[in-house]
């Protein structure tokens, strides 16, 4: 997953806009180090997990085979087991309704990401603001007056 980035500035601020559709601020981590490098990272989880569906299908096939081999004396145990398995499957279905879908095309990107930016020396690293709205992370970094280098005469 490689989120799209927009960088801009005006006379007072630097702006970073990161497109993170479907993500919340709790899924994003921001860090800045002493070298003026701002890193934004996180993970966009997939709403569809094919491996989970496959394992559930494998379990169902195993249950079908076992059903044919069971005798009458095990039917009470089997009914209790089926009820428990049914409750577990119902819970899974409630938690992961999208897993029952058959996807023909998936164009959305998922996975971990990390983007780093060199922040200019005239940025105020003590006053960085960030907000998440409608799937877009906006980072605002205030500019400060850089220290002026004054030439001075040194006597020899």
Automatic annotation (TrEMBL):
DNA damage listed as a keyword: no
Domain SHSP: start-end pairs: 1-156
Domain of life of the source: Eukaryota
Skewed-composition ranges (Acidic residues): 58-67
Keyword Protein biosynthesis found: no
Pfam families: HSP20 (PF00011)
Key words of the record: Stress response
Residue ranges with Basic and acidic residues bias: 69-102
Region (Disordered): 43-102
SUPFAM superfamilies: HSP20-like chaperones (SSF49764)
UniProt family annotation: Belongs to the small heat shock protein (HSP20) family.
PANTHER family: HEAT-SHOCK PROTEIN 20 FAMILY MEMBER
Protein name per its UniProtKB record: HSP20-like chaperone
The organism of origin for this protein: Neocallimastix californiae
């Amino acid at each position: 997953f490689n989120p799209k980035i927009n960088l801009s500035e005006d006379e007072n601020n630097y702006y970073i806009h990161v497109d993170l559709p479907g993500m919340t601020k709790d899924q994003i981590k921001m860090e800045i180090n002493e070298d003026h490098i701002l890193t934004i990272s996180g993970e966009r989880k997939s709403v569809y997990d094919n491996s989970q569906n496959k394992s559930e299908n494998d379990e169902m096939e195993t249950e079908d085979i076992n059903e044919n081999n069971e005798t009458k004396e095990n039917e009470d145990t089997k009914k209790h087991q089926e009820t428990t398995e049914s409750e577990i499957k119902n819970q899974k279905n409630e938690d992961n309704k999208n897993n029952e879908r058959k996807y023909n095309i998936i164009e959305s990107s998922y996975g971990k990401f990390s983007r780093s930016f060199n922040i200019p020396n005239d940025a105020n690293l003590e006053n960085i603001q960030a907000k998440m709205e409608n799937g877009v992370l906006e980072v605002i970094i205030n500019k400060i007056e850089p220290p002026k280098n004054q030439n001075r005469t040194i006597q020899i």
